[in-house]
Specification:
ten-stranded mixed sheet, alpha+beta
Length: about 325
Amino acid sequence: METNLISLGIDAGNGAFKLFGASGGLEIVSQVATNGTQKVLSTLGLRKSKAPLAIHNEHGSFYVGAGSHSYGRPVENLDVDRFNGTPEMKALLHGSLTRFQQRYGKFNAPLSVVVGLPNEVLTGDQAEQNVENVKRWLRGAHTWTADGEPYSLEISEVKAASQVTGGLFDYLLDAEGRSIPERQGAFKGEVGVITIGFGTVELMVVQNREIVQRFTSGAASGVRRLLEIVNGQRLYSLGELDLQLRAGQLDLREALPIWEREVTGVIEKQWGTAWKRFAAVLIMGGGAVLLKDTLPHRFNGRSYMPDEPVQAIARGLYRLSLAQQARKGK
């Protein structure tokens, strides 16, 4: 195993692709479109929109990130097959790695990544095969161009963990991957983790560093469901609605309470009132931001929502990677 590796946490969410490393974090909207060749010149009286990032790799040409669905044919594959390395998933990876290096500088060594996966991928008869598939397409040499500029890098190590695990270690570890003393006591009791992403609501309970299986599950009630409620007439792609949501342009007065009841229904079905015995309930993910004024109050002072809850999973996976590297060095 190589010792000079750059650690990176990856949260490959349906709503946004998040990366976190030593320099900081980055989020790129999980929008991909096949790259058409037609370009429309700006017309008198109309503004010319900025083109999204153009990625070209072994699978072809794509637009990636915010605005992609306005420039090409939207690709909205939100099932678990995407984690097996579909063309749009590789385009998102290459797009996010491009933006990360543009912000923080080019990588000067191979990468060691910890990727967060939804519970749906990590459970059932195909769980082991799913993890191997993820490792297979991530590991190795990656070459692509972004807006015509060539990029290449090597991913030497790939580890997989549940997305909720990333949320847990974001709470338990500091920026150097060291245990936060005042929070370690939570491991002696039970800690509940709720992550509300674009596709799913994930629940996990940990006690003495072991997962309590009967309290751990996932359901397809993430932010996507909120957008589907808003999009009753199917006038927009989910990506277009997601951008409107991020820009504060969606009227959620009727849809938000309906969706919130779905989310709380998932929690109540799996946990009931058992959360009253938990030492803490951690709430994170992009959807948590939408419910920050109501959901935490259901847990009578036991809830904790981190700063930047959207980045918490990728950040926690990065911190977990640092902690594991430190143990190996001893």
